[in-house]
Specification:
75% helix, 0% strand, mainly alpha
Length: 300
């Protein structure tokens, strides 16, 4: 069998078909659209991140340089502002209060609404669909509208002004989104796993804790993050509820800096930086689970 020379085979190949005019036009339009979208998103990102960058910059300036303004990068960066704010803010006292309130809120939210999500996703009982829709509908109720009833109820119960009086409304406020995410995550678990465990003699509680909860770990971490961040940063309800400085959380402690006769903006920005650093570190360390949890809940 005679072989065809390589150059002959190359010549035998048909020439590449030139792109049709409409295909080239469509490709050009897509390129222009992507470029425009990229530029707009980049500008939006710069506008969004600028206040945060200004806060970080001001935290390393003195008061005079902040007041002069005009530049983002500190000309004479100093750590004295952060040290001075650290001492003024009584960081550890307020930090401990914020940490306790956040931890209690997150733990109670996970325990209560993980069980609720399992019930809505797996169990069958009368009124299940209506009750689930009622929970989800609470997403559209503004929190400010229920603040006065919460304060009056807690005052009647004698828990107004305590950390426990903050934890309860925080847990209740996280109900709609937590139930929605946990129900979606549990719906994504194959029903055959529960059937197999039940055949092997596992109780419903054992199925929930040993089969479903481990598989829903990304959703649990997502719920924990979505609960911890607003709880840590909450100011309005905390300001209405707490009157004793010994019970203040970090946002209220930060407010004490702005209550001075002459506001020191560098101290305020340093205090804000101290408040947000734990939240940023928490999110960065768990962002992979956060994204997986949202995707799993949506698929469910």
């Amino acid at each position: 069998m005679t072989s065809i020379p390589l150059d002959t085979r190359r010549r035998a190949q048909p020439p590449a078909r030139p792109a049709a005019p409409h295909e080239a036009t469509a490709r050009t339009r897509r390129l222009i659209a992507r470029t425009v979208v990229g530029v707009l998103l980049g500008l939006y990102g710069l506008v969004s991140v600028y206040p945060f960058l200004w806060m970080v910059s001001a935290a390393f300036k003195d008061q005079a340089e902040v007041v002069r303004g005009g530049h983002l990068i500190p000309r004479n960066p100093t750590f004295d502002t952060i040290v001075d704010t650290w001492n003024k803010l009584h960081f550890f006292d307020f930090f401990l209060n914020s940490l306790l309130v956040t931890l209690y809120t997150v733990v109670l939210t996970l325990v209560i609404y993980a069980a609720a999500g399992y019930a809505f996703a797996v169990l069958r009982f009368p009124g299940r669909g209506v009750l689930q829709k009622l929970f989800v509908s609470l997403l559209f109720v503004p929190g400010i509208t229920v603040m006065l009833p919460i304060v009056l109820l807690e005052n009647t119960m004698g828990i107004l002004g305590s950390h426990f009086g903050l934890v309860l409304p925080f847990v209740n406020g996280g109900a709609p989104l937590s139930v929605l995410l946990m129900t979606g995550a549990f719906l994504a678990v194959p029903a055959e796993l529960r059937d197999s465990a039940r055949v092997d003699g596992a109780s419903e509680l054992r199925v929930f804790t040993s089969v479903y909860l481990p598989l829903a770990r990304p959703a649990l971490i997502t719920v924990a993050l979505l609960t911890a961040i607003p709880t840590w940063n909450e100011f309005l309800l905390t300001r209405v509820s707490l009157n004793d400085p010994d019970t203040y959380t970090l946002p209220l402690g930060l407010q004490t800096l702005s209550a001075e006769n002459v506001p020191h903006y560098n101290n305020l920005m340093a205090g804000a930086l101290i408040v947000v650093i734990p939240v940023i570190l928490l999110f960065l360390s768990l962002q992979r689970y956060f994204v997986n949890g949202l995707v799993g809940a949506v698929k469910g």
